[in-house]
Design brief:
273 residues; alpha+beta; 6-stranded mixed β-sheet; 38% helix; elongated
Length: 273
């Protein structure tokens, strides 16, 4: 039997909500030994994927053993059902599996396949437009691969993600402050970031609020946003910074407010005259 399923791609803007997984499922996903070396079939699929990417000038994928255990959980499900799918009844969604395993990501996609050997599976993926797009996506940098062999059939899963760097609250605020400072200099606008403890705490509390602001000093403008990286500012915030009306800012970071499976940074920027 040779078969693959239509690919599945989930972006940061998706409206998925991380479900509360039963403890037994969480334990199964998290229990895999991340030090287990990749099998020969898994090594082949990784090498084949990277050959395809490098031949097109793309960066190679890094194998993530934590993501691999999420892939292994699903590969076992496929082998147990003697079928392939992106989800079976009672099984967590793709994004939930990766988040439960402990992966921080802003984008995730998946290829699954079944064939008598891993070579055929890779060839089928490359001949399918959707699967090929996943494998050659320039926006992903990490892959988790698992192959389960049962009854002479190879059940393969490739999970691709764009990882999110782990930054402390202070590091997040510093990164945004640096971008704002450089933006102000580029437009000739003098804008100082208030780093006093009261200003920081007010901004952090404002970040955790859905509306309004914290503190006694009323800002003229408040921008709350989430992002997978902190190298760019939202367009509305850039426009405000370029208006020349504001000369002081307070920046606060907080835990993600969306409760979803994606790892994003939550930031509040308060602008003052």
């Amino acid at each position: 039997m040779r078969q693959i399923k239509p690919f599945r791609r989930i972006l940061l803007k998706s409206t998925l909500v991380l479900s509360l997984l039963p403890c037994a499922l969480q334990s199964k996903i998290q229990a895999a030994d991340t030090s287990t070396p990749a099998s020969m079939a898994e090594q082949y699929l990784l090498a084949a994927a990277n050959r395809e990417r490098q031949s097109r000038g793309l960066q190679p994928l890094r194998r993530d053993p934590v993501l691999a255990r999420a892939a292994a959980f699903h590969a076992r499900q496929m082998a147990d059902h003697a079928d392939i799918s992106h989800g079976f009844p009672g099984e967590p969604e793709l994004a939930d599996r990766a988040a439960t395993a402990g992966v921080r990501f802003s984008l995730i996609s998946e290829n699954v396949g079944e064939a008598p050997d891993s070579t055929e599976i890779h060839e089928m993926w490359m001949q399918s437009e959707g699967h090929r797009e996943n494998l050659l996506d320039p926006n992903v940098n990490v892959v988790g691969i698992s192959v389960i062999v049962r009854d002479d059939q190879f059940y393969a899963v490739e999970d691709f993600v764009s990882t999110v760097e782990t930054l402390s609250i202070n590091q997040q605020e510093t990164a945004v402050a640096n971008i704002i400072a450089s933006s102000g200099g580029a437009i000739g606008n003098t804008l100082a970031v208030n780093t006093s403890e009261p200003a920081i705490q007010s901004a952090r509390q404002t970040c955790s609020m859905h509306t309004g602001y914290a503190g006694s000093n009323r800002p003229w403008f408040v921008m709350r946003y989430t992002a997978a990286d902190l190298n760019h500012l939202p367009s509305p915030l850039q426009a405000r910074l370029g208006s020349g009306k504001y000369h002081q800012a307070a920046i606060g970071a907080c835990s993600s407010r969306d409760g979803g499976p994606f790892s994003t940074y939550s930031i509040a920027v308060l602008l003052y005259p």
